Amino acid sequence: MAMTKNGFPNATLEQIHWLSLYLRLPAGGVAEEFPTESACEDRFRQIRWPDGLICPVCSKKDFGNLTSEKFYPCRNCKTQVSDTSGTILHRRRLDLGVYFLLSAEIVRYETARSIPSGHDIKDRFGLAYATAVRLKKNVTRALTEVDGGLLGRCICVRDLTLPQDIDFGSDDHLIWLQGEDQRRRWRSVGI
Ligand SMILES: [Zn+2]
């Protein structure tokens, strides 16, 4: 089977990837789970630095207070470290909240296998068309990483444990996920 357009080895693995992310999105939506920019920043920091911030230059963990430009000065080598340095969000112009919402939107679209157009994203987030197209491309690519990469891990808050008797990446895996999706829909309407 040919590789999918998003670079997955086959269509089953790609569907498993997006549906797994989709089922782990917050039940009430990303905007409700992370209502403010600082809630998004806290989440990003927790995912990016689970063991606390480490200086990329000297590997020490001794920092001064967060500056108004959102840098942590390393007390040892004076490097200014930010939460997003070395990630696709480095030098971002948009709020983290926009990336979170857009990521959830892309996961939803890819799961439903209907891709958002640049115009959809431009209108939804009030961006210039060229920015919307570039953003969609970069965020989609980032979300294809294992567990959705950094952004995927930020927005995926719910547990989803594959039963032990099902092999990862198998047709049964996809069928189990689709069943899980269906069970949730039934639960949400009280069946
Ligand atoms: Zn340092």
Account of the protein in words:
With 191 residues, the protein is mainly alpha-helical. It has a domain at 11-50 and 88-160. The chain is 49% helix and 2% strand. It is built from 8 helices and 2 strands. It has a two-stranded antiparallel sheet. α1 (11-23) runs parallel beside α8. The chain is globular and about 55 Å long. 21% of the residues are buried. The mean pLDDT is 91. The protein binds zinc ion (ZN). Zinc ion binds next to loops.
Search tags:
191 residues, mainly alpha, two-stranded antiparallel ribbon, 8 helices, 2 strands, 49% helix, binds zinc ion
Profile the largest sheet.
2 strands, antiparallel
Number of helices: 8
What series of H and E elements makes up the topology? HHHEEHHHHH
Number of DSSP strands?
2
Widest beta sheet: strand line-up: 1-2
The amount of beta strand, in percent, is under 5%
What structural class do you assign from the helix and strand content? mainly alpha
Provide a quick synopsis of the model.
The protein has 191 residues and is mainly α. Helices cover 49% and strands 2% of the residues. It has eight helices and two strands.
Please outline the helices and strands:
Blueprint: H1 11-23, H2 30-33, H3 37-48, E1 72-73, E2 80-81, H4 96-111, H5 118-125, H6 129-143, H7 149-155, H8 171-188
Antiparallel strand pairs: 1-2
Helix pairs in contact: 1-4, 1-8, 3-7, 4-6, 4-7, 5-6
The protein binds zinc ion.
Zinc ion binds near residues 55, 57 and 58.
